[in-house]
Structure formats: C-alpha cells, structure tokens
Amino acid sequence: MPYFSTTSTPPSTNTEDSSHPKQMDGPLSSTGEDMGSFENPASNAETEADDTIQQESDNDRVEEEPKPGMKFATDHELMAYYMRYAKQQGFGVITQRTKREANGRVKYLTIGCARGGKYHPSHSNISRPRPTIKTDCKARINAHLVEGSWVVTTVEIGHNHSTVSPQKSRFFRSHKCLDEYSQRMLDLNDRAGIRMNKNFGALVVDAGGFENLQFQEKDCRNFIDKARQLRLGKGGGEALTEYFKRMRLQNDGFVYVIDVDEELRLR
C-alpha cells in the first residue's frame, strides 16, 4: 500500500502572527521605535497565542526521511516537504530537472542538494576558474505525476560533503525568506529616510534576535534597491531628486547633479 505523507502541508507563512503588530500607524524611528501607535485589540490575544503555538510547533517538527511511495497533492507540497527536511538536515535545495507535458504541465520533477551537479565555466579564462560550491552531490528525490498526485519514485540520501547545523541552514539561499511584513517595514522605513543598519536592526529586535530571522542584512539591501527602482517609473527624475535631497540632509558632503526634462523625466 503506498505511503501517504502526513507532512505534505507547507508551514504557515502568516506574516501577521503574535510577534508582529496588527496595524502600524507610523514608520519606525531611526532608533527602531514606532513613531505612531499600534492597534492590538485584546479580543485577538487568544487567536494570536494560538498562531504562535502553531508556528513554534511547525518549526520544531521533525520531518521524516523521504521514502519511495510518498504521495503529495501538488508539486508545491512536495517541494515544501523536501525544503523542510533539507533545512533540518543542513543542506540547501534546488530543482535539478523537470519534464513537462505538451500542455505545459510538469509531469516529472527532480529536487536535490544545491551542491549537486558539476561546475561548467562559461567564461573564456579557464586558467582562473571561479570558486564553486558544486561537488556533484547525488542527494535528491525523483517524483512523477500519477493520476493527479505526485509520487516519490527514487530517493538518494547520502551527501559527498559535510552539512551544517539546522541553526545555520537558514543562511542557504533556498531557505531564506523575506516575508511580507518585513518587506513592508523595510519599505516604509526607507521612505522615511531611516538608514539600512537601523532599519535592519529594528527587524532584529522585533524578531527577538538574529537567530529568529530567515534572512540577512544583505537580503534587505537587495530588496530596498529593487524597491527604489520600482518607485522611479514615470516621473523618475522627481523621485530621484527627492532621494538625493534626503541624502544631502543626512550627509553635508553629499553632492549630486541630475539632468531632467520639463516633465521631470531623466534625460
């Protein structure tokens, strides 16, 4: 009789749990404190406590080793399970291979260790190869779509490299997650002119320490860089000018020159 996984449901990604305020009236100050007030009705206390308990149980849950015959309703549930398993075992994950039907639906999937495969340099200077994490690791699982369900067919468990502790595995790219709440706080504080070190520090305090974050300061900087680019759009010259003005107020030595047309668009 085929095995039915009891851990196929991905962990909750609710970004408004008990550790996060329900409503924010103002951005964080440069000291990491809120300039407005937070609405936290007492009637929601029991619900928030339940959410916290559920999230802690998801984080503490030990995923069993993958076995042939496991079934999952969707490929997303399959990926979520293997990601949780890889995180507790201390390795990163990538999708190594997929096959699709004529209609574009995926019918075959290989998920494996991020250090699987071999490095093939694409640059011309082969005498100075770039550093790589690839070790041709064979740890992976294969799954087929059978009658609407994803069935694990083959499993490779062993790694040809050392793994890290579960506490450090959150730094692998596949396990990083900049949640919506953190994105919203980063964007609001950046618009308010708060520097990144204090912006990130506010998230660290809110989470109760670095060890409780699923991302690093570098990920926050990358997000803010993209957010600033999206803000430009039409009238980008005006937005860029306002940004330069804020930088000028923060740094007396900051000098800028910008060329815009009559509609405040960059030339």
UniProtKB/TrEMBL annotation:
InterPro entries: FAR1_DNA_bnd_dom (IPR004330). Residues 58-71 have a biased composition (Basic and acidic residues). Residues 81-163 form the FAR1 domain. Residues 1-16 have a biased composition (Low complexity). It comes from the Eukaryota. Residues 1-71 are annotated as: Disordered. It holds the Pfam family FAR1. PANTHER family: OS01G0519700 PROTEIN, OS09G0290500 PROTEIN. This is FAR1 domain-containing protein.
